[in-house]
Amino acid sequence: MLKEIQSILDAVLLPCSILAHHLRRIDVDEYKGGEIDKEKYVVYRRVTSTNRIYGNGNKKLRRTVVDVNLYYARGLEALEDYDEATVIIDDIEKAFIAAGWRTSGQTDLFDMDIGLNGINIEVSCIA
């Protein structure tokens, strides 16, 4: 499941020079010969995985919910980058939908520790 999520995010973000990583930000200067935008990054984490059990006791369905957080710019600079960030997060949503996932809208974020603004989406998949 995590490989699928990483593949979806890489397909959208790497052409924009943005890295995505599970649970935490990674600091890299280059990725496969391209420069990395250090002012933007994506962190995703699995929020929940719930098995659906039926009368015969076997797992039939599994619902997985994942938070995807795009962080960008600091302070007043964020006003200029907000439009670009919303386009990127829209592209992420479209990629997940195309892969059979569901999305549940966008929420603004602020990372108090490092002062970056961000946008969160929640995606889910039933398999």
Determine the CATH topology: STM4215-like
Secondary-structure element series: HEEEEEHEE
User: Biggest sheet: strands side by side, in what order?
Assistant: 1-4-5-7-6
The secondary-structure class comes to alpha+beta
β-strand amount? over 45%
Give the count of helical stretches: 2
Distance between the termini: 10 Å
Q: What is the helix content?
A: 25-40%
Mean pLDDT level: 83
Oligomer: single chain
What is the CATH architecture term? 2-Layer Sandwich
Instruction: Give the low-confidence spans.
Output: none
Identify the overall geometry: elongated
> CATH homologous superfamily?
Phage tail protein-like
Note down, in words, how this protein is organized:
The chain has 127 residues and is an alpha+beta fold. It has one domain: STM4215-like (2-Layer Sandwich), CATH 3.30.2000.10. The chain has two helices and seven strands; from the N terminus they run αβββββαββ. The strands form two sheets. A five-stranded mixed sheet has the order 1-4-5-7-6. The protein has a two-stranded antiparallel sheet with strand order 2-3. A hairpin with a 2-residue loop joins strand 2 and strand 3. The protein starts with a helix and ends with a strand.
